[in-house]
Amino acid sequence: MKAYFNNIFTALLTILTGMKVTLRHLFTPSITIQYPDVKIPLPERERNRLYVNMDECIGCDQCSRACPVNCIEIETVKSLPGEDLGKTSNGKKKALWVTKFTIDFAKCCYCQLCVFPCPTECIYMTDVYEFSEYNRNNLIYDFATLTPEERIEKKENYQKFLEQKEQQKSQPQKP
Amino acid sequence: MIYEFFYNLTGNSILSGSIVALLPLFAFLLPFVLFAILLERKVAGHMQDRLGPMRVGYHGILQTISDIIKLIQKEDIIARDNDKLFFNIAPVLTFTGSYAAFAVIPFSSIFLGVKIDLGIFYIIAVTGLVVAGILMAGWASNNKYSLLGAMRSVAQIISYEIPTILVVLTIVMLTGTMSLIELSENQIGYFWNWYILGGPEMSLQKLFLIPFMLISFIIIYISTLAEVNRTPFDIPEAESELVSGYHTEYSGMKFAMFFLAEYANKFAVSAIIVVLFFGGYQSPFGYLGNSLGMTWLVPIEQFFWFISKGIFFVFIQMWLRWTLPRLRVDQLMAVSWKYLIPIAFVNLLIIGVISLF
Amino acid sequence: MSIRTEEMVLNMGPQHPSTHGVLRLELTLDGEIIIKVVPHIGYLHRCFEKHCEVITYPQVIPYTDRMDYLAAMGNEFGYVIGVEKLLGIQVPERVEYIRVIMAELQRIASHLIAIGTYGADIGAVTPFLYCFRDREKILSLFEITCGARLLYNYIWIGGLSHDLHPDFIRLTKEFIKEFKSNLRELNNLLTYNRIFIDRTANVGILPLETAINFGITGPMLRASGLKWDLRRDDTYSVYNKFDFDIPVGEGKMGTVGDSWDRYYVRVLEIEESLKIIKQAINSIPDGDVTSAIPKKIKPPVGHIYSRVENPRGELGYFIISDGSTSPFRVKVRAPSFVNLQIMDELCRGHLVADVIAILGSVDIVLGEVDR
Questions:
Q1: pTM value?
Q2: CA distance A155 to chain C (A)
Q3: Which of chain B's residues have a Cβ under 8 Å away from the Cβ of C129?
């Protein structure tokens, strides 16, 4: 009998305590925001879409090798002896034409493993997180600065250079 | 009443009858449902430190309307193995059951569908249709979750009708009337005339009645909560167990019908409680219209008070919903049979003894 | 006389609101009473273990994050400890302290989800959102530290990817202060609610012997009454420097090892984790967090089994090295996977509604069950 009334009492009491909690929250300001209109400022270490500063890139392929999901694809062509590609800001000499530098953000897992090995700190993560697309192919970003014609040209140039070298080798040396 | 008014206006009994029948729907029920759904979402949102709907209109005021537009546009899906006839009838039946109750609910001394002497009896009888509708929906859906939900719902509604009726019986015994309008008229004056505070008679008896009336109120509130399938008794549509119970398979307007019925029911049971315990449409502090000498203002005030009291209890239903977990089937039955019914009986007895003196 | 009734097979999931992901439970019912439960898993299988064989040791870390995605820090922790033991490197004290702080914050975040979703399963949606509100604060602590909110890749072999953010200590202290009152509120709203107790106490009782026989670990085992916590009993990192209790189920509202105990052990563990974090941030030494990261990670031939106490139980990594830069084999002993098998044992004879209550108290993460 005692347990019976105790049950009723605890049930009513705990329900009222719970109602007190929710009532208090009814009048506290809400913590959510109206997302696309209001945005929370992101911290400086935010890890979102990658960005590659091609002025600095020396085409060393280290980021691509560090990537656990193989989302970075880099193709390079060696520069010809006469060409000067300039230097990166930390004094590294560029020796390769980067003819392809694509990152597939559909594959990217935002782990930041590619950022640390970069010798020139040219690949880094930005705070851009709104880049959804209707077509998956649009998520493949090409960062290489060369135009398609230039890319073909560079490749051909190098090919020609190799052939010339080959020819020079095969030609009998003048006495 | 309203029927006579329209009868005099149009001179046609069928026309005036249908106007009276549709009046609660268009003048009250649809706006109420629109408002209540928004209120529910806003209450839920703010209780959970969220904002609730914010996009359509200022603070999402038009959200429900846009939802209804969406529901109307939706394809009406009937699966191959559904029992088509019953599947289509069920939502209509459920809505009819809960809407029929509005025929006798006195919104004010003149806004009242029909004035019948067995008002409260009629409501209890006619809301039985809802049970049939729900069982029909669950069975015709041909879905195991729906069936389980419907079975639970029926068991629940039937067993919770008993404590409800016992409490209603208490009031009927005390007052000797079943007419809702008479009950409301009895409680005229100030709020201490309400039955929750022992009724209009000023005597020692009133003092004794107060605690037992409070108990009666709590019992009827809990059991009506169960009758309209609200948390903590929302096991028929327990979304974490049964997806959404008997209306899992419904889409579009048929789903909206269930929704409408649910919200209509919610107000109907609140209205019963208001009439039985909280003075019906009577103002708690006397009427402004009387003191100003504008008698035409009185029914409007009455309407206002009735609606506000009703919505207050609807709000408490929402408040409970967003606070409490839900019970299990067997516990739900235990609450009814082990707690509410015995207490209601004892309460009935005590109030009977008190009213003898 | 007994009426013979037909058994009904009810398919719960893989798309069901409270199977916590893509678990499919095949329930055999007699009316609403459970006769048999067969969990079907594999809907989220992503070949984690096979992937590990073709990628290098540091590249495995982002994959470990994705197993138990609610406790990513803990997953990294276990893997990294294993590889460090294989390599035989000692990490600086500061790194260990930060790792412990992160793992404990992660434990709180994970338990908050366990508690919140458990409440939602029982029907109380509001505590769920309160839990998420608090978890959000922990996630933003992680975010300022390493930039990610869920899958961190923060604990590296031999160190950490970043040092703590300058604001981290202050914000953590603020969080702890604020969180204590929130936890009290949560207890008032849910833990001691009579309906919640009725739904969970004496439901799904797991006797200690059965728990041990099934290999159950973590809060579930402790709720059955055994004081077994790898942080103390097989201590790793710097856990032996901190003073904390191991809460066990006491059967306060019903029987030892019921669902309420499993829930309550998690609530108590949150408090213990707060204690550890407080001690750790007060005594954190200075130092460099990246100094011990080896340039080339190429462990010698050998194998190791490393285990940590993850929020869901013992998370073990069995790593075989063939001397190359990628592991020969990484086998994971996932706590959720092991804990899930108890479902049939616990559910038999209960009602359908109890399956939800029991599954919620087992607290599985499908990402870890399937890997």
A1: 0.86
A2: 31
A3: 48-50
CA distance B296 to chain A (A): 38
Closest by CA position to B324, among listed B259, B237, B236, B233: B233
Q: Is C223 in contact with C265 (CB distance < 8 Å)?
A: yes
Over residues A65-90, the pLDDT tens digits come to 888 888 888 888 877 777 777 777 77
Q: What is the pLDDT of residue B111?
A: 67
Helices (H), chain C: 48-52, 57-65, 72-87, 93-122, 126-146, 168-186, 194-200, 208-213, 219-223, 230-233, 259-282, 335-340, 343-347, 352-362, 366-370
Phi and psi torsions of A10, nearest 5°: -65, -35
User: How would you class A122 by CB atoms within 10 Å of its CB: exposed for 0-12, middle for 13-18, buried for 19 or more?
Assistant: buried
Structure confidence at residue B203 as a pLDDT band (50, 70, 90): confident
**DSSP annotation string for C235-281:** --TTGGGS---------SSSSTTSHHHHHHHHHHHHHHHHHHHHHHH
Neighbors of chain A by Cβ distance (3+ pairs < 8 Å) = B, C
Question: Which stretches within C156-258 are classed as H helix?
Answer: 168-186, 194-200, 208-213, 219-223, 230-233
Contact B325 C351 (CB under 8 A): no
Weakly modelled stretches of chain C, pLDDT under 50: none
Q: Provide CB contacts within 8 A for A13, sequence distance 6+.
A: C194
ipTM of the complex: 0.81
Interface test with A, best of C143, C149, C187, C194 (most A CBs within 10 A): C194
What is the pLDDT, as a whole number, of residue C322?
87
CA of B244 vs chain C CAs: smallest distance (Å): 10
Give the type of residue at A32. Answer: T
- Binary contact (B319, A22; C-beta < 8 A): yes
Q: Do C122 and B243 touch (CB under 8 A)?
A: no
**C155-188 tens-digit pLDDT:** 888 888 888 888 888 888 888 888 888 888 888 8
Cα dihedral B128, B132, B137, B139 in deg (nearest 10):
140
Look at the block and give the residue holding tokens 């340039």.
C295
Provide the mean pLDDT of chain B: 81
pLDDT of residue A173: 61
The verdict on whether omega for the bond into residue B232 sits within 30 degrees of 0, i.e. cis, is yes
Q: What local confidence, expressed as pLDDT, does residue B238 receive? A: 66
Give the separation between CA C19 and CA C16, rounded to whole angstroms.
6
Are A26 and B43 inside 8 Å of each other by CB? yes
Cis before residue A175, ω within 30 degrees of 0?
Answer: no
Q: Could you tell me the end-to-end alpha-carbon distance of chain A, in angstroms, rounded to an integer?
A: 121
Q: Do C122 and B148 touch (CB under 8 A)?
A: no
Q: Which helix (H) or strand (E) holds A101?
A: strand A96-104
Beta-carbon separation of B46 and A31 below 8 A: no
Which residues, including other chains, have CB under 8 Å from residue B356's CB and lie 6 or more apart? none
Q: Is residue B218 exposed (0-12), middle (13-18) or buried (19+ Cβ within 10 Å)?
A: middle
Distance of CA C196 to the CA centre of its chain: 23
Whether the Cβ atoms of residue A144 and residue A54 lie closer than 8 Å to each other = yes
